Amino acid sequence: MVQVRKATYADIAGIQKVARVTWNHTYEGLIPEGIQHQFLSQNYSNEAMKRRIERSLLLVAEVENKVVGFINFFQLKNRNDAELGSIYIYPEQHGQGIGSKLLNAGIDVLNGVSNIFVNVERLTTSGKNFYTAKGFKIINEYDEDLAGNKVKMIRMVLQLKSDV
């Protein structure tokens, strides 16, 4: 059974492992391994993870007391919107509803948010398909420089409340 809860410092190693495994699986052939390693080392270091736990909404999904996925939201400044910074689940756990549980739990905690924005690598069909199935709409496409590697990105939004 899947349990979703707020992350604690004790979850850092589990989150780091999920990030490493899923990045390698998701971006193989799209982002060079060295750039993946550099990104993960910076953005998933112990210090970076402590800051995420303290300053953002970081939820983990557990199966049998083992972290199998996580989702991270950041409140956007001066707006009633949030950014979905990351959602990763072990590849062997895909298709079991864990991503949906994480997203729905985040939406519940972010009660009152009007929009959730996310950036997704254009060629990762699993990510794009997941967000589309959850009601996210593409609002633009752009190129991002990731340590000298050009990555084609899509910006999507999930509108939770109408501005009317």
Would you kindly provide a brief summary of this structure?
With 164 residues, the protein is of the alpha+beta class. It contains 5 helices and 7 strands; from the N terminus they run E-H-H-H-E-E-E-H-E-H-E-E.
How many strands in all? Answer: 7
Secondary structure class reads alpha+beta
Question: What level of helicity do the residues show?
Answer: 25-40%
Order of helices and strands: EHHHEEEHEHEE
Given this structure, which CATH class is correct? Alpha Beta
Shape: globular
Mean pLDDT: 90
- Indicate the radius of gyration in whole angstroms: 15 Å
How much of the sequence lies in strands comes to 35-45%
CATH topology term: Aminopeptidase
Distance between the termini: 40 Å
GO cellular component, one term: ribosome
GO molecular function: acyltransferase activity, transferring groups other than amino-acyl groups
Keywords: Acyltransferase, Ribonucleoprotein, Ribosomal protein, Transferase
Domain N-acetyltransferase: 2-161
What does this protein structure show overall?
Keywords: Acyltransferase, Ribonucleoprotein, Ribosomal protein, Transferase. It holds the Pfam family Acetyltransf_10. This is Ribosomal protein S18 acetylase RimI-like enzyme. InterPro entries: Acyl_CoA_acyltransferase (IPR016181), Bact_Acetyltransf (IPR050832), GNAT_dom (IPR000182). With 164 residues, the chain is of the alpha+beta class. The chain has helices spanning 12-27, 33-43, 46-55, 98-109, 125-133, and strands at residues 2-6, 57-63, 66-75, 81-89, 115-121, 137-146, 149-159. A 7-stranded mixed β-sheet has the order 1-2-3-4-5-7-6, with helices on both faces. Helix 1 packs antiparallel against helix 2 (33-43). The longest helix is centred in the N-terminal third of the chain and has 16 residues, at 12-27.
